[in-house]
Amino acid sequence: MTFVFWHSYLMFHQAAYIRELANHPGNTVHWCVTQDLPAYYRDRGYPLPDTGKVQVHAAPSPEQIAELATLPDSVQVFFGLRGFALPLCAFKASLGAPVHRFLMTENRYEAGARLWPRWLLYTWDALRYRRHLSGVFCIGHSGRYGGERFFSSCGYPRDRIVPFLHVVDSKPVQHLPVQRDHKEILYVGQLIARKRVDLLLKAFSQLALPSAHLRIIGGGEEEQNLRQLASELGIAGRVSFSQALPNARILQAMAAADVLVLPSRFDGWGAVVNEALMVGTPVICSDRCGASDVIENGHNGYVFEADDADALLQRLHSFFEDFQWNRAELASAESLRLGGVAVAARFQRNTRRLLATCQPTPQPHGVPTSQKMLKK
Prior knowledge:
By secondary structure, the chain is α/β, with parallel strands linked by helices. The chain has helices at residues 15-23, 39-43, 62-68, 85-94, 115-129, 147-154, 197-205, 223-232, 247-256, 272-278, 309-322, 327-337, 340-356, 370-374; strands at 2-9, 28-35, 55-58, 75-79, 100-106, 135-139, 161-164, 184-188, 213-217, 239-242, 259-262, 283-286, 301-304. α8 (223-232) links the parallel β9 (213-217) and β10. The radius of gyration is 21 Å and the shape is globular. It starts with a strand and ends with a helix.
């Protein structure tokens, strides 16, 4: 098969499986991007991902776009058609050509004031684009706030929306015994309102484990407010703040922590979940994080209801009172399950299935009301 991926840059959370696709016998893989890596990520210490045998095309010319977007019988994968100039340009160039088009997108179901206008925009996109698509690969697919619900309500056929995920490369981390006399909870990410680190601080302040420590790695506009909140809650001495670290040091911090918590009110995915699991650290995350798709309660962590400090506190208690795991076994199992080889095989299998079951374009769905979107 010939695959052509269209992204704005060489996404390090997609490279692992795209690279493995190119290793499958009979596959040719092109990866077209506006630029290799934005300065924003370079400044944060992210390296260019390993692309292996993939044929990379950075800043392709209009002639190259036209040629690659119309390769006969190719599988064209467009990462987003809203806000990304190159994928949309290539999608339009492909129209009328004998190719198979797939949309890949993160979940966009962010409950609250943004939901209704966002639903209108994506419904308009579905009306224009769905008849040209063989399927939708949805990153953050399942659950009450999942992408399947959002995109099917926009008018994409539910049976053509398949779950997908972000993928990170497995990196060897030495699992040395941790020499400390306390339990450590870890948060890694931006310190912004959407991430709800304040919720984590409130739950932590009520945790019946006075020796526990909370480590927060990251920076952002909420940092001073969060430091002040920790002081007001009387836990400043048990909470440490660190600025963003190089990825290798973050993985070491994850491997040393007892549990990673991602309390966001909304995250299209949340790749820190993959990274923690792949070094053997269980995860507690909210049900509005796309990465909750890979959490199995009691096995590799827990999922809690977003914006509910009591629910998070209950999960923390469950973890420290009942959870049992072998770090090396968890790291091995999750590195296989979430790694590039397994995801590439899943992606190709789902692509073949969707192509084999293509049906005539369905009639447009009835337009759901705002009440239908805002209620389960």
